[in-house]
Design brief:
Blueprint: H1 4-17, H2 22-37, H3 48-56, E1 67-71, E2 75-79, H4 85-103, E3 105-113, H5 119-127, E4 131-137, E5 158-162, E6 170-174, H6 181-190, E7 199-200, E8 206-207, E9 218-219, H7 230-246, E10 275-283, H8 290-305, H9 320-332, H10 338-351
Parallel strand pairs: 2-3
Antiparallel strand pairs: 1-2, 3-10, 4-5, 4-10, 5-6, 7-8, 7-9
Length: about 350
């Protein structure tokens, strides 16, 4: 068990060691540790060595000149200059928020970035300003579209944050696949199989092998197969890829560069600039008075909480499990598995920073 402050301090020092500014190092560390606090261990400090490998390979610029390269009153395209997506993402969301203040809504497409952590972190930034926040990003091609043997899409998550009044913010944050690849990495480290429905092997057959993707297999879209709606998960992933890549001028489809932890993947020659994201901010009072809306959001949430549930079950509001986990881990610390501890200690030894 490691406290959030200890992990945050260590992570910040590592980013400082590769040349990030104090502000950027602090922000990047906060994004990663927020994932661990919320129980999304696949996107937390376990990924820190991967970001450093991207830096070693020249794919991350620790001191980027992030800039708007095209804009209208309500839209913008941001070039991340190969910066940490953990930094580029919040920068772009702030632009969307400022656009929304003026125009009612703000939409920002990003190119030339890198992996941006959990999508929910960025969507929540808008909710703090009485706005509905949206964040999405594409990722390395690990996913086979319905009926395909080729991997053409990433896990391509979508997050939407909607503020309420007395109730906590509604936050839906999910991959467009049956599961994020990070969940397979966790089971790989534990030497365990994956449930059926997560992946297919190189011949397109269902598999429980956690290493199937490394051996020519693929992750499956949300829904798993055609009979259970995989075409809908495929459609969601395609929308995220087009918004994040084709619209922004980033790479897209099979050309999205892999994250460093997917060392078995080779980057294809690109058709755009780096990794892309897409952000949106919608001012609630552009539709109805914000206080009135948030009161009705309370009513919405409370009614769903009161739903009659199956024996031993409870109807949850999107964001509930992560909020509960954050409260527990702030109190008791964050559990970090031994392989991750070892990788962090090795990273610390390289830079002279003690975990």
């Amino acid at each position: 068990m490691i406290t959030a402050n200890e992990l945050r301090t260590f992570t910040e020092q590592i980013f400082l060691a590769i040349g990030c500014s104090e502000t950027d190092a602090r922000l990047a560390a906060d994004v990663l540790v927020s994932a661990d606090l919320r129980g999304v261990d696949s996107h937390g400090v376990a990924r820190l060595p991967g970001y450093i490998r991207l830096y070693d390979n020249g794919r991350i610029n620790p001191q980027p000149h992030i800039r708007v390269v095209h804009e209208t009153p309500s839209t913008a395209v941001v070039d991340g200059d190969r910066g940490l997506g953990l930094v580029v993402g919040p920068w772009a969301m702030r632009i969307a928020i400022e656009k929304a203040r003026v125009a009612g809504t703000g939409w920002v497409a990003v190119r030339n970035s890198n992996h941006f952590g959990i999508a929910g972190y960025h969507a929540l930034l808008a909710a703090e300003h009485d706005m509905i926040g949206q964040a999405m990003t594409h990722a390395a091609p690990l996913v086979a579209p319905t009926f395909s043997l080729d991997k053409l899409l990433g896990t391509n998550p979508i997050a939407v944050a909607i503020p309420a009044s007395t109730e906590p913010t509604f936050l839906a944050d999910f991959a467009s696949t049956a599961v994020a690849y990070g969940k397979l990495e966790i089971l790989q480290r534990k030497g365990q199989d994956v449930p059926l429905g997560w992946a297919q092997d190189a011949e397109g057959q269902p598999t429980t092998d956690a290493n199937a993707i490394r051996n020519g297999g693929a992750l499956l879209p949300l829904g798993t197969d055609r009979e259970h709606g995989s075409h809908k998960g495929y459609g969601l992933g395609a929308i995220v890829d087009i918004f994040s890549g084709v619209l922004s001028g980033a790479n897209y489809g099979p050309w999205v560069p892999p994250f460093a932890t997917a060392g078995f993947m080779q980057a294809n020659e690109g058709v755009g600039a780096g990794t892309g994201h897409f952000f949106g901010a919608m001012r609630i009072d552009a539709f109805r008075p914000a206080d009135e809306f948030k009161t009705h959001m309370d009513t919405w949430i409370q009614r769903f909480r009161q739903a009659k549930a199956m024996d031993g079950k409870q109807v949850l509001i999107p964001g509930d499990p992560e909020r509960d986990m954050e409260a527990e881990r702030l109190k008791n610390g964050i559990p970090v598995v031994e392989p991750v501890v070892k990788s962090l200690e090795e990273l610390g030894e390289r830079f002279g920073i003690k975990l």
